[in-house]
Amino acid sequence: MKIIPDDLLYSREHIWVRVEGDLATIGITDYAQEKLGEIVSLDLPEVDADLERDEPFGSIESAKAVVELISPVSGVVISVNEDITDDIGIINSDPHDTGWMIIVEMDDPEELDDLLDTRGYQEFVIQETEVD
């Protein structure tokens, strides 16, 4: 089973969220980076960009595919991880920690209620792999 940290919430689009007050740190899951393979490019929003839940906030490209990154929350981008723009391999090697992508000041923390906890995400991934 892939690494699925207990302290995060997860979207069905394989995005994780670490919540601290009204701030949401966002990245892709270990499962997502493994499915994508080696990541070759990343397009992220600028600081101060407005995000809408369930709308793309950027894209990620690997040798296998180009995938839109779907925001799990609405809000304003307050930080972008410059380290991953310098070394994109961090997303593959450490997706849940140093491989974070953006920090968003959330408009409505209740949007988090629609996300999955660790067990829910594990079950979702198992169902998805059975379909593949």
Output the CATH homologous superfamily. RNA polymerase II/Efflux pump adaptor protein, barrel-sandwich hybrid domain
- The third-level CATH topology is OB fold (Dihydrolipoamide Acetyltransferase, E2P)
**Total tally of structural domains:** 1
Cα-based radius of gyration, to the nearest Å: 14 Å
Distance between the termini: 16 Å
Note the main sheet: 6 strands, antiparallel
SSE order, as H and E? EEEHEEEEEHHEH
What's the count of strands? 9
Question: How much beta, percentage-wise?
Answer: 25-35%
Tell me the name of the CATH class: Mainly Beta
Enumerate the spans where pLDDT stays under 50 for 5 or more consecutive residues.
none
Q: Quote the average pLDDT.
A: 95
Helix content: 10-25%
Strands of the biggest beta sheet: in what spatial order? Answer: 1-2-3-9-8-5
**Structural class per helix/strand content?**
alpha+beta
Please write out the topology.
Layout: E1 9-10, E2 15-20, E3 23-28, H1 30-36, E4 39-43, E5 50-51, E6 56-62, E7 66-70, E8 75-80, H2 82-86, H3 89-93, E9 102-106, H4 118-131
Antiparallel strand pairs: 1-2, 2-3, 3-9, 4-6, 5-8, 6-7, 8-9
Could you walk me through the main structural features you see in this protein, from its secondary elements to its overall organization?
By secondary structure, this protein is α+β, with helices and mostly antiparallel strands. The protein has a single domain, classed as OB fold (Dihydrolipoamide Acetyltransferase, E2P) (Beta Barrel). It contains 4 helices and 9 strands; from the N terminus they run βββαβββββααβα. The chain has helices at residues 30-36, 82-86, 89-93, 118-131, and strands at 9-10, 15-20, 23-28, 39-43, 50-51, 56-62, 66-70, 75-80, 102-106. The strands form 2 sheets. Strands 1-2-3-9-8-5 form a 6-stranded antiparallel β-sheet. It is globular, with a radius of gyration of 14 Å. The model has no long low-confidence stretch (mean pLDDT 95).
